UniProtKB/TrEMBL annotation:
Cofactors required: FAD; FMN
GO molecular function annotation: sarcosine oxidase activity
Official protein name in the record: Sarcosine oxidase subunit beta
Enzyme class at the top of the EC tree: oxidoreductase
EC number: 1.5.3.24
Record field: transmembrane: none
Organism field: Nitratireductor thuwali
Catalytic reaction(s) noted: sarcosine + O2 + H2O = formaldehyde + glycine + H2O2; sarcosine + (6S)-5,6,7,8-tetrahydrofolate + O2 = (6R)-5,10-methylene-5,6,7,8-tetrahydrofolate + glycine + H2O2
Amino acid sequence: MAEYSALSLLKNAFSGNRGWKPAWRKASPKPAYDVIVVGGGGHGLATAYYLAAEHGIRKVAVLEKGWLGSGNIGRNTTIVRSNYLLPESIRFYDHSVRLWENLSHELNYNVMFSQRGVLNLAHSPAQADDYIRRGNAMRHEGGDGVWLSPAQIARYAPGVDISPSARFPVVGGLLQPRAGTARHDAVAWGYARAADRLGVDIIENCEVTGFLRDGDQIAGVSTSRGDIRGKKVAVAVAGSTGRVMKLAGIENLPIESHVLQAFVSESIKPFVDCVVTFGAGHLYMSQSDKGGLVFGGSLDLYNSYAQRGNLPLVEEVMSEMTAMFPAVARLRLLRSWGGVMDMSMDGSPIITKGPLPGMYLNCGWCYGGFKATPASGYSFAWTIAKDEPHPINAPFTLSRFERGVIIDEKGQGPTPKLH
């Protein structure tokens, strides 16, 4: 942490904080690169970092149409977990949790990863059976899942209403102790800084407007700052995937874009020191280090590229919030925002070579993009460098939809907004 040592803090405090070195260079586009990564969000930046750090590929450009942190990496509720049911999902997301556990040290940048635990509340015997089954599946794959009784929940998360008279009585909960939260923008800054130090060019305000071709081969991109040629072109643009891939002539991907809202309350004294989810609806909540309650709910359930939502969903989330934590009923809402989710047909991501020669695609993250950031970047970089998938992303192909080998965690079928 030499650049952010106590000595550096003291030295810059006396110099008016004018001596800090920029975290990353303001790079200009070069004519050609070995790899072009379209999308400067968490997944794109992580991919560039692992290409340089793990595979020695340093002639890499990350193209971001806006500024770093302006997309979903700065528009989420910061939850990290791997409490899934299907083995493909558990292995992938647990690999991500393991990368999270060492990420601050690896990037030499504090991403404020806090393993405070994620608790899923169950409100019926059938839901309890389902959660216990999921916990057993996690433990079978080497993960951590613990069943808590209502009395144990009362001690673990004292604010939860576990009274028998509650509108949705709590019958128990599945806890993943290793899960938690991280600071979302610090993740973007940490990966950007580490990739920059390895020679990656991070080019902001550079929108891709088309793809260059040599015959059938993708050979680069046209951008708002000129043409850039690349031996390999990787696309990791989350909710904008449909629009960017349309520029390459791909219009029938198995994804839809939906808006997902999130909220922050005014700051209060320490109230809850874990992440809690409400099983009778769709709500998840934690408390930030600044004291605000950070929470979100379901999608707005209509297709949109807008980074804002509507009031019916706000009302639904607030009613679930007060059902779970009656003590916050008079708390004031500080702000809200929307992120654009790329919802796939089976609710699981796509990390694959193709669908065109010279192209690589990373999308379909639904609600799970933030927690997957390290594993997504790690496995996507592997796929780009070696032209074959890493074992953890091998099941998440685009062709699984043609072959019928879907990874439908919730069993909702081909209705993206229900996953």
